[in-house]
Amino acid sequence: MNVNPEGAKTCSGGGRGGLQRFSLAKAAILLATGLAFSVGVALAAGTQVYNPKTGQWTNYDRTQAYKYYRTHKQVPESFRMQVVKFRTAEQPGTIIIDGNQHFLYLVQPGQKAIRYGIGVGRDGFGWAGIVRVGRTAEWPTWTPPAEMVARDPNARKWAKGQPGGPDNPLGARALYLYEGDQDTIYRIHGTPEPWTIGLDVSSGCIRMNNDDIVDLHSRIQVGAKVIVLMQGAALYKGV
Amino acid sequence: MSKWQSFRMMALAASTSLFAGAGAQAADLVIAMPNWSSGQATANILKVALKKEFGVEADAVEMGTLIAFAGLNSGTVDIHPEVWLPNLDNLVKQYVTDAGTVAISPVGVPAWQGICANRTAADKYGIKDISDLSDPKKTAAVDTDGDGRGEMWIGAQTWSSTSIERIRANSYGYAKTVTLLEMPEDVGMAAVDAAEATEQPVVFGCYAPHAVFKLHDIVRLTEPPYDPAKWQIVLPSEDPAWETKSSAPVGWDTAHYHIAYATALRKEHPEIVKFLERVDFKPEESTEMSYALQVERQDPYEFAQQWVTKNDARVKGWAKP
């Protein structure tokens, strides 16, 4: 276990080396990510959730998400941690991130996976490829990038780093994604805003509920293979 | 890394794990073992069968294809279990045709490549033929970024086949309706896994034998058969204007992979040469082998022991018909 020694910079930078980097999509498609909750998904529509009581798909934007969470004290069922059937040639312990559907899979023995809901970047990740968990941290420090400090007065007070804690944007745990020995600057981390799971809201990182990131953190090994799929808003631009 | 990836790389990388030292010298024969799963299985099956049927000790030593051929030529390697043709035609010309130091078994395992869809894409969205990829109403089903165009993984950036898939997409016309993605194979296959886990449609470049056919219910898109007159391929390494100079509105030609052996074996072990030229693995067996090693993570040697026991009569038929 590492306590983050240098602060966790946010995910506004680009991937390097073998990572596939994509240019940003135009704003018109930012909310156009199809999201599946069950068989027969509304494709290429805005993020939606399926209401089994009414049999209707309903839009799931930031306002809806906040309302849902306030009412139910948790995210919609599809985004909650659950064991699912997952047939793959990848080894148990591998993490597969599907930004399009807002799911993170941790491969388990027996062709199963633990599936967690995630929030992803406003413009998708902007990258895809194969990385690994280079290190981890509990209650990591968050250091806003210089451009955020310049534009956001709230970030300015943390220019030298916000200590870990319940209000810290990185939440309870952070998994630092490395390509070889290089920090990609992307992280899988917790969040003090659990209602944002299932949305495209972050700055390119992968965010999870604090309970989920604590669970994931307890199950993975440093060095774990992480596959970030191509799917997701903006990921295909520039290919 | 798959066998396809290894063979398809524009420059075949030489393995650093050449010859395992004392072990290789102690054995009667050396089998070059590829780094892909079916090749590892067949190398070990040959090792077990040679011991069982002929009392010959063989070491299966992992090495790259270029080094394996150099070893077959120089006498430090005796057998290679999977030589893909026409992918390695240049090596065959060098060592089989010109030098005469390497021989290829006449028995080949047929291999296939083309475009695949999962059952959801085929049955629910009607993507069953290559022409369906040119129908934007159908390919919208595999749009995952909301721009209205579908996406399709066509291979790794390092594969020469990926350029050919791009040529085929241009020639058939679906390059206009589908965004073609190039990423490492693990990313492409994990995307298929994720689509299957949520019953989402997906189409992708694929080849067989491959474990994906046993992992998932995969449909091969139908398309016009290979026609050499219409297969005009110029690779990026040959001409910067390769895309405009190429055309291939037809399916791939069938590939085959064969056992190769050093021709010196004909004098030293003629009975083994006859055995090697009778070995006839089937494509579905290669898929099973890939699945056992790659997905079930069985030990290659233990898998081979079980395989030889289970197929005893067949192995005996190869050895002493």
Distance between the termini of chain B: 36 Å
Task: Give me the strand/helix succession of chain A.
Answer: EEEEHEEEEEEEHHEEEEHE
Strand content of chain B: 15-25%
CATH homology-level superfamily of the largest domain in chain B: Periplasmic binding protein-like II
Q: What would the keywords be for this entry?
A:
heterodimer, A: 239 residues, alpha/beta, L,D-transpeptidase catalytic domain-like, two-stranded parallel ribbon, 4 helices, 13% helix, 30% strand, disordered C terminus, B: 321 residues, D-Maltodextrin-Binding Protein, domain 2, 2 domains, 5-stranded antiparallel β-sheet, 16 helices, globular, disordered N terminus
Can you tell me about this structure?
The complex is a heterodimer of chains A (239) and B (321). By secondary structure, chain A is an alpha/beta fold. Chain A has a domain of 165 residues: L,D-transpeptidase catalytic domain-like (Beta Barrel). In chain A, 13% of the residues lie in helices and 30% in strands. Chain A has 4 helices and 16 strands. In chain A, strands 2, 5, 6, 7, 8, 10, 12, 13, 15 and 16 form a 10-stranded mixed beta sheet that branches. In chain A, strands 1-11 form a two-stranded parallel sheet. A two-stranded antiparallel ribbon of chain A has the order 3-4. Chain B is of the alpha/beta class and 321 residues long. Chain B has 2 domains: 172 residues, D-Maltodextrin-Binding Protein, domain 2; 134 residues, Glycine betaine-binding periplasmic protein, domain 2 (D-Maltodextrin-Binding Protein, domain 2), CATH 3.40.190. Chain B has 16 helices and 9 strands. In chain B, the strands form 3 sheets. In chain B, strands 3, 4, 7, 8 and 9 form a 5-stranded antiparallel beta sheet that branches. Chain B has a two-stranded parallel sheet with strand order 1-2. In chain B, strands 5-6 form a two-stranded parallel ribbon. In chain B, α3 links the parallel β1 and β2. In chain B, α3 crosses α14. The N terminus of chain B is likely disordered. Chains A and B meet through β10 of A and β6 and α9 of B.
